[in-house]
Every structure is written in C-alpha cells, then in structure tokens.
Amino acid sequence: MLDARAAGGWLLAIAAVLAALALRYTRLGRHTFAIGSNELTARLCGVPVERVKVYLYSLAGAFTGLAGVMQFSRLTIGDPTVAAGLELDVIAAVVIGGGSLAGGEGSILGSLVGALIVSVIRSGCAQMQMPNWVQEIITGAIIVVAVALDRRRHRWT
Asked: Are 23 and 33 in contact (CB under 8 A)?
C-alpha cells in the first residue's frame, strides 16, 4: 500500500506525462501555446480563444482540487493557509525551467526541473538555518536573474 507521499509522486509523474503529451500532440495543446504566445493572432488564425480558456481553467481547477485532496490526505486536517506564500516558488520554478513570462514558451519537463532546483535551494537554506525572509530574497533574486536571461535571449533572436 502506498502512503500519501508516494502516491503524490506517482500522480505527479502520471499528470506530467499526460500533460506533456497533451501539449505536444493535441489541438488543445497547440491552441494553448498559440494563445500564450499572442492571443490576438491566435484569434485571427481561427483558434476559439474563449472556449480554450474555459477548458484550461477547468483543467487547472480539477488539478488544483486533486492537489488539495492529496494535501489533505497528508495533513489530515483542512487548513486553507498551509500553502500561503508558495506563489513565489511556483513562479521561480517555471521561470528557471525555461518558461517565459511573456508567454508561449515552456515545457512540463523544464518546469519540473525548475521545481527541483527551487526545492534544493529551499532545503539548502533551511539546512543553513536561514530565516524565511532571506530565503524569499534569494528566490526573488533567482527569478530576477532568470527573467533577465530570458529577456536577453529574446532580444538576440
């Protein structure tokens, strides 16, 4: 029998593979990248932008609900503030993983690698007994550097 952490890891792997396949090989995936790159151009090319957005927000809600159930199974209590402040880590993971804040770029594998890097940095800061505000400054600095490198890369192409 799997415990909650092992089940969460397997669900993450399955969801990542399914999402990567969907983004690469389905019409919804192509439309997602088109809308993220330039919504007006996607609309002019015949992409049903509003319908795709409804699908994407519905999928995001479903995955968020699944994550909430998994978190509840681990904590065994309902606490709406358990993940407060993790938005910075999520943004850092996506930007470090190669996702562009301008939109239309990124990959599931890159985001997972970015999440692993952010987790290692968080764990290292905790091992060094740094206060939370120092950890947030370090994460913010990493985001600034990653965004600056992304902007420089886009300027060259």
From this structure: yes
According to DSSP H, which parts of the chain are helical?
Answer: 4-25, 27-37, 39-44, 49-75, 87-96, 108-127, 132-156
Q: Break the chain into its structural domains and give their ranges.
A: 1-82, 85-157
Distance of alpha carbon 13 from the chain centroid? 14
Give the pLDDT score at 93: 87
Per-residue buried b or exposed e for 36-62, using 16+ beta carbons within 10 Å of the residue's own CB: beebeebeeeebeeeebeeeeeeeeee
Tell whether the torsion through CA atoms of 16, 19, 22 and 25 is positive or negative: negative
Q: Give the pLDDT confidence of 5-46 residue by residue, as tens digits.
A: 677 788 788 989 998 999 899 999 999 989 988 899 999 999
Apex CA 148: angle with CA 143 and CA 154, to 5°?
125
Verdict on whether the full-model pTM lies above 0.90: no
For the chain, the first-to-last Cα distance in angstroms comes to 51
Residue 106 CB neighbours (<10 A): 19
Average of per-residue pLDDT across 91-96: 85
d(CA 44, CA 46): 5
